[in-house]
Amino acid sequence: EAQVTQNPRYLITVTGKKLTVTCSQNMNHEYMSWYRQDPGLGLRQIYYSMNVEVTDKGDVPEGYKVSRKEKRNFPLILESPSPNQTSLYFCASSRDPGSTEKLFFGSGTQLSVL
Amino acid sequence: RKEVEQDPGPFNVPEGATVAFNCTYSNSASQSFFWYRQDCRKEPKLLMSVYSSGNEDGRFTAQLNRASQYISLLIRDSKLSDSATYLCVVNGGTNDMRFGAGTRLTVKP
Questions:
Q1: Which residues in A lie closer than 8 A to residue B52 (C-beta atoms)?
Q2: From first to last of its 109 residues, what are the pLDDT tens digits of chain B?
């Protein structure tokens, strides 16, 4: 089954404790992206990747890191989480970032930073 | 001004009703348009793309008005299962997908 697998589904942590949210897709998609979703706001892009070893900042990259060492995986790293990073996070992928391609989303990670 | 704006609702309608949502966008160079459906705290899923000539998929009809820079979604004969948040998504080109904050719909018996 074609899917984007994101883990964990829920995560509660404390300020400053490094964490990683994993994302993996089995569709051989070149494009992957991370979003955060906050009440009253649309999904906002954190980082994206056009292909292996090619990553770039989205609209809200501060406090986050990513890597793309393999085509299927695109982890999101919070080196020193802060309470303002409490949010619902989605990983997404598509065949390419062109204008007509739809996005496939992971099931989301609800992160709470205390 | 937000790049993609939607009325947040909530829209509360009875089963069988017809309901319409609008979405406006600011980038006149936007190339493609979509409606996604999102159930509470779950991942967005593509409902339908929106084509220039308008398109229909069962009870759902999407329209695009480039001159006025808005898209619409019409749901006929609403079902309880249509209760969700509907996200308007506008793509301005390579890696320029912009999401509205969503319109919440509740269909009641």
A1: none
A2: 678 999 998 999 999 999 999 999 999 988 889 999 999 989 999 999 998 888 999 999 999 999 999 999 999 999 999 999 999 999 887 778 899 999 999 999 9
CB contact under 8 A, B95 and A97: yes
Q: Is B47 on the interface with A (CB under 8 A)?
A: no
Contact A42 B100 (CB under 8 A): yes
Q: Exposed, middle or buried: residue B17 (CB in 10 Å: 0-12, 13-18, 19+)?
A: middle
Least Cα separation, residue A26 to chain B (angstroms) = 17
Q: How far is CA A111 from the centre of its chain?
A: 12
DSSP β-ladder status, A4-7 and A19-25:
antiparallel
